[in-house]
Automatic annotation (TrEMBL), chain A:
<feature type="transmembrane region" description="Helical">
    <location>
        <begin position="6"/>
        <end position="25"/>
    </location>
</feature>
<keyword id="KW-1133">Transmembrane helix</keyword>
<dbReference type="InterPro" id="IPR025664">
    <property type="entry name" value="Spore_III_AC/AD"/>
</dbReference>
<keyword id="KW-0472">Membrane</keyword>
<dbReference type="InterPro" id="IPR009570">
    <property type="entry name" value="Spore_III_AC"/>
</dbReference>
<keyword id="KW-0812">Transmembrane</keyword>
<protein>
    <submittedName>
        <fullName>Stage III sporulation protein AC</fullName>
    </submittedName>
</protein>
<dbReference type="Pfam" id="PF06686">
    <property type="entry name" value="SpoIIIAC"/>
</dbReference>
<feature type="transmembrane region" description="Helical">
    <location>
        <begin position="37"/>
        <end position="57"/>
    </location>
</feature>
From TrEMBL, chain B:
<dbReference type="Pfam" id="PF06686">
    <property type="entry name" value="SpoIIIAC"/>
</dbReference>
<protein>
    <submittedName>
        <fullName>Stage III sporulation protein AD</fullName>
    </submittedName>
</protein>
<dbReference type="InterPro" id="IPR025664">
    <property type="entry name" value="Spore_III_AC/AD"/>
</dbReference>
<dbReference type="InterPro" id="IPR014211">
    <property type="entry name" value="Spore_III_AD"/>
</dbReference>
Amino acid sequence: MGLDLQLLFQIAVIGIAAAILGTLLKQSGRDEIATMVTITSLLLVTAVVVTHISSLFSQIRAVFFTQ
Amino acid sequence: MTILPIVLFAVVGAFLIMVLREIAPQVAFLLSLVIAVLLFIVALHQVTGVLAPLEKLAASANVNLVFFSTVLKIIGIAYVVEFGAQIARDAGVGSIASKVELVGKLLIILLALPIVNAVIDAVTHLLP
């Protein structure tokens, strides 16, 4: 585990790419595909976040609530 | 782990959030969540280092193990509640954050009741 900066950059790149793609698609008149791109990027990042939160909670349980 | 990587991590994360907040606010929030989780995990590792000597100390002072585990649970609840409340406050829902804190306080009181009972028992035994 530890602090990996790579994860931060990955998430930032996903966000920036989704924003750019969304703007391009919206300007070319494909609003629904732009929405899909936004939602997909959000889901991608959420999957990563949920994995880390679950690992954090299991570690907290191991440290404080062992009985 | 030294302090420098932690601070560097936080600064880089703050910069990325600042960039992302303009163009993708939801992703910026999730990024702040990830940074909070990773920093919390680091803090937890340090706590583990503190806890082992403390447990040894409690064992050598003949402290009842039930009390020690209760204190540990209370610290854990405080940790988790603080984390959740801060996340909720970051997301802009202060009302949910205050509810989370309220529930945490209630749970801590519930856990502390046996200790209070033990203190009262000791005092009444001292009284004639």
